[in-house]
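Researcher: Quick one. two chains, 372 residues in total.
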Amino acid sequence: MTPTQDDDASRARPGEPATDVGRRDPIAVAYELWREHGWEDAADGMALVTSLSRVNQLMTERIERTLRPYELSFARYELLRLLAFTSTGRVAMTRLGSLLQVHPTSVTSVVARLERQGHVERLRRTTDRRVVLASITGSGRHVAEVATRALNEDVFSRPGLPLEDVRTMTRLLGSLRGHLGDMTTP
Amino acid sequence: MTPTQDDDASRARPGEPATDVGRRDPIAVAYELWREHGWEDAADGMALVTSLSRVNQLMTERIERTLRPYELSFARYELLRLLAFTSTGRVAMTRLGSLLQVHPTSVTSVVARLERQGHVERLRRTTDRRVVLASITGSGRHVAEVATRALNEDVFSRPGLPLEDVRTMTRLLGSLRGHLGDMTTP
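Model:
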């Protein structure tokens, strides 16, 4: 590391635009900078994408905080919740990826972790021993229910917007999902 | 692994609700299941949170695909973009976390990676050698500009919704951010 003069460029100087983001909405600052640089066509899209990323980060923190007492991550909770909804509690590993919209590698590691916790076991079909099923256990069913109750209470039933806005946002997000390739509800 | 009878519960049987998510919007299916289980107060919030998570995942994939030719992740791009916006290209490491709204550990590893790529160097202040600054290099400035151009063209200027909806969504996301603790634009 080489020495340099004291120079912290993120503080505003007289005559310079206020880049001291500390007291301002960083997304509003970025929006202004985009427009100042002549990227007006991209500024709104940039602000949307950045806002989505930020809200998702905050929501994930909130969810993981709620799930911590149950020793679950959101990914593990979602897999357990899916299994618990099925009548037999068993789904083929290869189907879990598409049902949960995650990569098969992710499914394997989530199931392995849940298996170590005793919430899931892996079984083979007798009729076709190549097929591996993820099967929820009694403790898995129990923790899926109590975790759902906690998420419903702490996160889902108070999302931070009036119901009408929640529905508007879900609808618009649905349009975006469709545009980006998902199966959606028209 | 113990053998079991052929039983894949995620296929719909006659008389059973259609749980075969493969052909339906998985978020709509989850919404129905939430209501069927009596969790009506939480169903809309659950659908919103799940939609946010999914859209963010799809957007991140799109962004990382656009940045791949430049050998950048979104996190590395954002840090370079921030440095490139400042007049001197230098910001104290300790400030980067709050400016980018990420954990200091994350800043350290992102800067280290960019340093190995030659896009950033770490410097110490002469006036206070405890302060470490992240400083963008010539190649860092160059890649920040070409990557911004690519993101603007491929992602930001065609977000997948009409401008009015983009702005509605950004505004609602801003309300959510404020509710979850961020500095926002009122």
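Confidence is low (pLDDT under 50) at residues 3-19 of chain A.
Researcher: Thanks, that's what I needed.
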